[in-house]
Amino acid sequence: MAASDAHSGASIRHAFGNVLGFFILLLIGVLAFSIRLFSVIKYESVIHEFDPYFNYRVTQFLTKNGIYDFWNWFDDRTWYPLGRVIGGTVYPGLTLTAGTLWWMLNSLNIPLSVETVCVFTAPIFSAFASWATYLLTKEVKGTGAGLTAAVLLAMVNFSSSFVPSYISRSVAGSYDNEAVAIFALIFTFYLYIKTLNTGSLFYATLNSIAYFYMVCSWGGYTFIINLIPMHVLLCIVTGRYSSRLYIAYAPLVVLGTLLASLVPVVGFNAVMTSEHFASFLVFIIIHVVALVYYIKGILSPKMFKVALALVVSAGLAVCCAMVAVLIALVASSPTKGWSGRSLSLLDPTYASKYIPIIASVSEHQPPTWPSYFMDINVLAFLVPAGIIACFSPLSDASSFVVLYIVTSVYFSGVMVRLMLVLAPAACILSGIALSQAFDVFTRSIKLQLPSVSGQSNVDAGEASSGNVVPNDPVKTDKNEDTSKERTSKKSKKKEKEHVEKPVSKSQIKKRLLVLPLETSIIAIILLVLLGAFYVVHSVWAAAEAYSAPSIVLTSHSHDGLHVFDDFREAYAWLSHNTEIDDKVASWWDYGYQTTAMANRTVIVDNNTWNNTHIATVGTAMSSPEKAAWEIFHSLDVKYVLVVFGGLVGYPSDDINKFLWMVRIGGGVFPHIKEPDYLRDGQYRIDSMATPTMLNCLMYKLSYYRFVETDGKAFDRVRRTEIGKKYFKLTHFEEVFTTHHWMVRIYKLKPPKNRIRGKIKKSKSVQNKLENKLEKKRTKKEPLLV
Amino acid sequence: MKMRSIPFLLFLFPILFTFPFLPSPVLSASDLILAKVDRRVSLLGFRSLSLFFTSHCHSFKLHCQGFRFSFQFQNQPGSDLRIRIDLTSQIVRITTSLKVENTGSDVVSEILLSFPENQANHLAYLKATLSEGKGKVKPSAGAGLPVEVVHPKDLPPALTIYSVSLPKGLGKGDSLTLVVLAVLTHTLQPFPEKINQGDIQLLLFQESAQYLSPYAVKVQSLTVKLPDARIESYTKLENAKLQGSELKYGPYENLPPFSYLPIVIHFENNQPFAVAKELVREIEISHWGNVQITEHYDIIHAGAQSKGEFSRLDYQTRPYLRGASAFRRLVARLPPRAHSVYYRDEIGNISTSSLWGDSKKTELEIEPRYPMFGGWKTAFTIGYGLPLRDYLFGSEGKRFLNITFGAPINQLVIDTLFIKVVLPEGSKDISVSAPFPVKQWQETKLSHLDIGGRPVVVLEKNNVVPEHNEHFQVYYKFNSLSMLREPLMLISGFFFLFIACIVYTHADISISKSSASYLAKLQWDEVQATVQQVHSIISRCLTAHDKLETSLYDLSRSGDIQACKATRKSVDSSLKELSKELKLPLAFLQSSPQAAQILPKVEELVAKERELQDKLLAKHTTVVDCYEKKLGGREIENRIAPQQQKINALKQEIDDLMDVIDEI
């Protein structure tokens, strides 16, 4: 009886831990999903920003035309007149994921629109990502089942579902590659560690497939294919080579590279660009090492030494030769085989020096310290603690996490955008740190609280009988317990000590880790406060900072909420009131939105693949009206769209971006010179501005008739009165301006006849005369009697 | 000047050309006319109609609220006919009230109404009602008389003839008052056709000042109600009068059949010319208590086209001057208790709308994304839910939906209206009853969790005006039990999912039952079970130890040696039993190769436990002995102190070992 009781107690305990863990996972998933719905609740279920609109449009095409048409899609509505091969230049992971989701839902007769599916893809995958983070952490710290695991799980998931920098990229509607890529990244790492821990080929294969999914999803896959070789190299150098390491790495390189080259956008890049060379090099090294280990196994130590000397000298020579050839090959290409974005990772100043188009994107700038605090908040302080926890003891897996955090901190320091890669690493480490800390404190309390009660108990006994029965204080309160209670109590205690167990098994060590009671209570309270502060900050960030869809803006004034929906107003106008084949020119930021929302052909868009074309538009915007008209006319442009924030104070408008247009345009067409637009190195649009500036198209289109709004032409963004107030447009005419003037659309006037001037004047006179005459006539007599 | 008048002339050509072909009766003698009319009637092939017009008892009267015009059929003194044309909106509403008197001898059961081609093409709605009292009846009130198109052979195709069937024949000398409402769309032509942003919108309307009818008219008059704005010009006939915004023609007396007097009015009208090129109304019935209505509008400003620049500045500073012809908002009157209203287009929600409601109606004011100038288009969707009980009724075992036909937006002309009534899955015997002829067919629609799809009744009608907002009914049979189908599907789906999970966790799905790894796994399971067993036995041993300790504690308090000894005995026996029990699993573990790794730990545990047991028993004996010898507390303590230390150390070690084993 008692035996079965104890047995069932243990299994119930296990089941309880599992069920609790399952519910924590479920709730965390729900939490991760729902914290990202602020944008839907505060605004609406709509696709955000710029790139997501392109992804949405591609998904629409995919769901409408099927996968084969998608691979062969040549988009003639963008980069006019060049067009763009979408199927071969896009990372298809996100699109295929959302398309599959949509297809599945529709085949179950759940008629959700493509847009809805796209909007909610990111939150769904962030739930997956937080689960994957948990799995990775579990593999790293190698805990068993039960409550301790549940605590760890809660901590990791808690931090990963809340981390603001990930929220910023995965709120509902932020339908971008990163939304699924972060999940793919973590899951690939998890499978790598899992393979490393188990040495199972099954997981190695899964790992390659996960890597394939990552390659499909995001260009950031190069992070994986460089980080894992780095870790393998680290393991080899530190003498941690094992067959598990080989199984974890070799299949990934072979299968992964094969699979990666199946993705059209990667193709032969998978074996031809420098980003992938590290993996091949390590692939060779690991084979050499494997061979060495093998030979070491079959030879006697003495023979082995001889052989080693022989092989090392020969091998070094061969290696040197190969490296030399490799370097020569790589060096012969102009960018040294690295793509621009990757180069700017290695040399943060590269982009701003050589590629203005990359530097012009704000998310490619290095982050500031406040943005670190904004994006990872308290995690930044917990990470070092997590790193220390990873070193006790250092395993293959924990060394991977340390390497991961170190590299991602470096990369996030280069580009704001890569803060996203840092987020999961920070979550894992701070989750480990938190759960360790909680563990130590709760155990300290647990060990000391009973001692207080037990002591008083003993004192009482002493007073009554004068007899002392020396008892272990912990046991004292257990004496009355039945066998079942005993087991369950013990189990609870055991669970609490679980994590600490691998670290220290002996009693002495345990005692050493116990902290004073008061200290631990205060520390726990502080930790809870820290967590609460983190939650408050993250919820605030999710609700206020990162939920704005950026196509709808709101402002709170004394008379309530004011909505600025100008972008969609303009796009809707274009879509309904222009011809289907009209070409719209705008700065490239608005290209994706114009094609997706207005369904009009654009000249350039956010896929900045052709610098010359963008430079042409930049040149047109920086040229005087007539020259600009000629450029646009040669591109068959009918409408020009500019974004102007001067009336309502919308700062990211075209005037603020204008210097980039000048720079990019001047990079290709030397007659555009940046100094012409600057007065003493300062960018200004007031009366001190240069004549070139005041006569360029962008200035004119932005400020056309602006002076008539308030009489002074005060620009609320630049906080100054503009330089040139009264001017007329000769080659363009205003056809639409939105409610808050944020988007202004101009039409190119048709080319005029050669003879102008006199005839035009006389015509207008004639018209006037006619009008007058007509009026007279109508007054005199009705037209028809 | 010439240039400008040409469009007018062109415009009138069809009308002018129409009339020479009309048979023109000779108007000199009354009996001749009579014969003429008589002949025409018979030629027209009206089987039962024989309207005889006699000079003394034949009259048509027309009443219109407050406005009186007299049309006179030539040979019917005393009869009168009043026409009122409302041009205040884009929809032309012609209300004709005719007093009809049968002057012939036969009973008349049909009355003919004629429309020239240009009107007939744009005729959206025609309703004839009998006015019972003294006139002044709103044309919309009451049930209309059946009206149908007839194609008389001897009339030129330029005239479209509608025949109104009277409820009972009109006997000789009887008279009745008939109110006819004709609603025309797209008849107001903007002139000039293209205007600038600042221009006002001018419209042309052309009509006949005299009532075009196959019958002779005695007295007739015409009033045209114009909007309160400038009137550019109008055809100035002798008896034309302009009073404020009302233009009056007539009275004309003793008009022969088919008399026609063209007039043209050129006036300003800045009313919204909102025309829905296509409107798809989807009405989805859910028997869970909701009627969901989704309306997809495709709207165009059908007035004068806008040309040249659109300046937001001008529009914002002087909206009524520099954007007079544009409209910026539309008002939809939704049914009361409408809920979950939304207003969006394909790129998202449109925030410029407001909603208010009371018990009688819900009013939704929507602004398109941009002001609608002439020729500008937009498209949007309105959706709302309605309580089912207001619209679904049952009769004779059938259910029927009773809901309005047209769009809720005021003064909207709809070129093509599709109504899709989505009935619940499993509806049968579907039939539609509409107050006017519509094209209809059926489709199926797959929606939430459907298997066979929901039957959809599609109704199509062209040229719909607000007058069409009448109720129509869709009858169908539906079994209430079918409602439970989808919940049951969901429940069973989850049920099977859980069953599958249970089966998966309990079933052994290894492919190879004889492989080494599988066998090893089985053995390992067995070893684990055995280790668990050992674990539980040891923990029971520990419980027994606890009992011993308790008894000692009790002893120290109460000094009851006998009870302590009794406990000792029972614990001894239970410990013996336990050590027996322990033998079997230990033997198994020793024999199993899989357990080789764990065995040392287990054996260590067992040994430690035995040691602890011995020490405890020894301690117990010592303490009891001491009590029996009545030794002091301090002495006892001294004696057992070395033992106690060892016991504590052992306990800790055992605890650790237990944890280790538990983890296996």
TrEMBL record, chain A:
One of its GO terms (molecular function) is metal ion binding. It comes from the Eukaryota. Keywords: Endoplasmic reticulum, Glycoprotein, Glycosyltransferase, Magnesium, Manganese, Membrane, Metal-binding, Transferase, Transmembrane, Transmembrane helix. Residues 581-640 form the STT3/PglB/AglB core domain. Residues 454-468 have a biased composition (Polar residues). Residues 454-502, 761-785 are annotated as: Disordered. Pfam families: STT3, STT3-PglB_core. InterPro entries: Oligo_trans_STT3, STT3-PglB_core, STT3_N. The chain crosses the membrane at residues 20-41, 85-105, 117-137, 143-167, 179-204, 210-234, 246-271, 277-295, 307-331, 372-391, 422-441, 512-536. Residues 474-502 have a biased composition (Basic and acidic residues). Pathway: Protein modification; protein glycosylation. Belongs to the STT3 family. This is dolichyl-diphosphooligosaccharide--protein glycotransferase.
TrEMBL record, chain B:
The keyword Transmembrane applies. InterPro entries: Ribophorin_I. Pathway: Protein modification; protein glycosylation. Keywords: Endoplasmic reticulum, Membrane, Signal, Transmembrane, Transmembrane helix. One of its GO terms (cellular component) is oligosaccharyltransferase complex. Residues 1-28 form the signal peptide. The chain crosses the membrane at residues 488-507. The keyword ATP-binding does not apply. It holds the Pfam family Ribophorin_I. It is found in: Endoplasmic reticulum membrane. It is a single-pass type I membrane protein. Subunit of the oligosaccharyl transferase (OST) complex that catalyzes the initial transfer of a defined glycan (Glc(3)Man(9)GlcNAc(2) in eukaryotes) from the lipid carrier dolichol-pyrophosphate to an asparagine residue within an Asn-X-Ser/Thr consensus motif in nascent polypeptide chains, the first step in protein N-glycosylation. N-glycosylation occurs cotranslationally and the complex associates with the Sec61 complex at the channel-forming translocon complex that mediates protein translocation across the endoplasmic reticulum (ER). All subunits are required for a maximal enzyme activity. Belongs to the OST1 family. Component of the oligosaccharyltransferase (OST) complex. This is Dolichyl-diphosphooligosaccharide--protein glycosyltransferase subunit 1.
